[in-house]
Amino acid sequence: MLLALYSNNLYSHDGEKHIIKGHSKADKLEQCVEPTEDMQKNHFGYLYHQRDETVKHGIRTKQHSLANCIDCHVSYDDKGDAISINSEGQFCQTCHVQTAVNIDCFTCHATVPREKQVRLDLKHNQDSATTIEEHTSSLAKYFNETNDDRY
Amino acid sequence: MTDTKITNRRDFLVKSVTALSIIYVVPDIFPMADASIKKPFDKKVNASTKWGMNVEVDKCVDGCTACVEACIDENGLYGLDRPETDSQWIRKLVIKDIASDKVTTLPMMCQHCENPPCCDVCPTGASFRREDGIVMVNQHTCIGCRYCMMACPFKARSFVHENLTQQLTSAPRGKGCVESCNLCVNRIDHGSETTACEEACMKEGHVAISFGDLTDPNSRVSKSIKRTNNRRLRADLKLKQSVTYSGF
Fold this sequence. Notes:
The structure holds 2 protein chains of 2 kinds. By secondary structure, chain A is an all-alpha fold. Chain A folds into 2 domains: 17-107, no CATH class; 115-151, no CATH class. Chain A contains 5 helices and no strands. Chain A starts with a helix and ends in a 5-residue tail after the last helix. The model of chain A is unreliable at 1-18, 118-132 and 147-151 (pLDDT under 50). By secondary structure, chain B is of the alpha+beta class. In chain B, the strands form 4 sheets. A 4-stranded mixed β-sheet of chain B has the order 8-1-10-9. In chain B, strand 4 and strand 5 (135-137) form a beta hairpin. Residues 29-36 of chain B have low confidence and may be disordered. Chain A binds chain B through residues 51-53, 55-62, 67, 70, 107-110, 113-120, 122-124, 126, 132-133, 135-136, 139, 142-143, 148, 150-151, and chain B through 39, 41-45, 66, 69-70, 72-74, 76, 78, 128, 130-132, 136, 138-140, 163-164, 166-170, 172-175, 177, 185, 187, 189-194, 199-200, 202-205, 207, 220, 223.
């Protein structure tokens, strides 16, 4: 009996779909990293678990990471700039305003996918290197080129 | 085929000791067998790696702040132009030998102690030492009491006093928490073998900072330690830091 009650559309408060303005990667996908109903109910459980795993044990899987959530769910405006995910009408905020649950994540975490902004004036002109892998490989290349025998 | 059977107590003991020694002793004799394999993202860090750093002070150049700027860039430590309170994960110190008037500069950051006083005094367990030797703050549980800042003999930690807005995805940080150098933990977990400061120091051509796995004899840090006479700062405190200094 209880199960039957739960299987009804319990999560949508007004029976309407919340449509988010703009476009995000997630709009085009069938479902999130877990089934939609599961995500609606348990998303914070996943995030809560993942945050401890990441901070304490260095686990960096993407499936339940907040960075990955934002990466996929963030919307972009006409200029192509990402809109803060916790701003009014955006993915996190639409439901959280409705349910009056405050989000603390974004006092510390970035609200848009944000990589390094300041670029240093590097001697070896490696400004184009953006990812960590590129950084390390360019460094190795630099050592090969300069024949640094110290390493 | 009788010799494969366990016939008596003596056989049983011999065979079980042999089996156990294969399981427990052999990996200890060859600890480097799996060290070259990078940690997969879904595996926990373990004590088979111990990250550390050696600074060859004689190569550190007075006036160069490449490591400091690289740290700011890497972790998004954009200050509010208030030097008294702005976060500082790494800073340059100038020390002068009274006897010889010799001036040396060195970068000072979290020393990643094996016996970290910050973790001893933390009331919530937010200051902790990760299995691979990185001492860091779990900002989810940090209450901002700043005991750790007082306990640290190296003045390595900073407190965030004001609301921040431009944090990087790779370095979450916010008001009310203590923070410090975490040996670029995000980079390392993603397979990098350098920290931002080391990389910057190399690119400047000074190569004063060497980072790496202390358990790996072929890592840059181990070679640097072998080459020079390194020592720990305030060794009398017996904190067993992973960051060492040589050349002064």
